[in-house]
Automatic annotation (TrEMBL):
Belongs to the PAL/histidase family. Its EC number is 4.3.1.3. This is Histidine ammonia-lyase. It is found in: Cytoplasm. It is an enzyme of class 4 (lyase). NCBIfam families: hutH, PRK09367.1. There is a cross-link at A141-G143 (5-imidazolinone (Ala-Gly)). Coiled coil: none annotated. Pathway: Amino-acid degradation; L-histidine degradation into L-glutamate; N-formimidoyl-L-glutamate from L-histidine: step 1/3. Contains an active site 4-methylidene-imidazol-5-one (MIO), which is formed autocatalytically by cyclization and dehydration of residues Ala-Ser-Gly.
Amino acid sequence: MITLTGQNLTLAQMKEILFENQKVSASEKSMEAARKSREAVEKIVSESKVIYGITTGFGKFSDVLIDKEDVEDLQLNLIRSHACGVGEPFPEVVAKAMVLLRANALLKGFSGIRPIVIEKLIELVNKNIIPVIPQQGSLGASGDLAPLSHLALVLVGEGEVFYKGNRMSSLEAFQKEDINPVTLQAKEGLALINGTQAMTAMGVIGYLEAEQLAYQSELISSMTIEGLNGIIDAFAEEVHLARGYKQQIDTAARIRSYLSDSLLTTQQGELRVQDAYSLRCIPQVHGATWQALDYVKEKLEIEMNAATDNPLIFDDGETVISGGNFHGQPIAFAMDFMKIAVAEMANISERRIERLINPQLNDLPPFLSPQQGLQSGAMIMQYVAAALVSENKTLAHPASVDSIPSSANQEDHVSMGTIGSRHAYQIIQNTRRVLAIEFICAMQAVEYRGVKKMATQTKRLFDAGRELVPSIKKDRIFSKDIERATEGLKTMNLAKLIQPLDKVK
């Protein structure tokens, strides 16, 4: 059981909850903070004070006062009117992350929402009742209004959910689990939808997948080095200490570890003086990707524990401030940075694929073909990798540099962070396929060199890969191989193949 406090949720805990079905609870201290902020809202309503979103309309309607008897209708109308997302739903794991992150943010005690609503969100997480949330329609300020409105619809019994593999109305799922919908009271609709949880949830899932891919890319590229009799000297510790980037140093150390007992690597001058950049500069390029991912991780873990709605309630209700924490610019920048960093992993991987199959660049059979001319071998796999890399370049265009005014220019600058996070996720999927192609080609190359000469670590990866994709003895429908290898990478537990990654320095 992981206890949510609104203060210290980590990506490691998110992974446990989302992928290992770990249950969550709310700390009593945080629930007490929520109760106190709720009392402040009720006092504001009883005294008919003019406070944005509690006794006024929203956006450009912030100057319109709402009668005391209409505050509940105001919240329900808000949810219904803002639930206008379009397109395919977010992946279920992303939607579950949204619910979890919204509960965690509300537990900070600045939002004025009743504890029962937070309890309902936690119940959805623990019982795997996942809101159906369309992916498109958020500007990333005032937060993720459209996506989070679809989440809030579920709580009032008007939305749709995924439950035990089926898509159904929230009421149907609630009946199966003996859950009652809630009636939103003053400020609660606004507190549920004014936040950055869609872009952050998408970013969390993207980061967790990108982190795994970054480790896998080092192991796969190590096998490529063997397939090309690469020069190991370029990974010497003193080279990387001389520059000083920790991530570059660590990447080189892991590759040295993976290849420590390989008989397929060479020394400089043995076969050639130096390798091409796509081999020689792996620590520099992959290390730079790790630098970006470290930045993304830092920003995500801050945002996961942030109060991002508006207005915020302080000093037991004595101070209510209308601010702009819902603006997604920090996450928008982080998502764009992740897009570029992961796209570059695919970029350099595709160049290694070219070196594996191009007879002008190696001494292997052309295109790794088992029968030159009659069999095309891996020729068109490189085409596919090139197409995916090119698509990544268009997706990597920064979303965060765009802004379109909304709400009659009251909301005149927005982040587009959710678009950035969605594009980052697409790039990650494309990059995994490119790495899968490099994996297939590298396995074929080391077969020609001699599998018995492989390093212990890369041989374990080779054995796992051959369970997914057989050796190329003749041409076949290679798209099936690519997809099997891709799925294998997505589910592969690297810790079972190699020594713990965080111990390899």
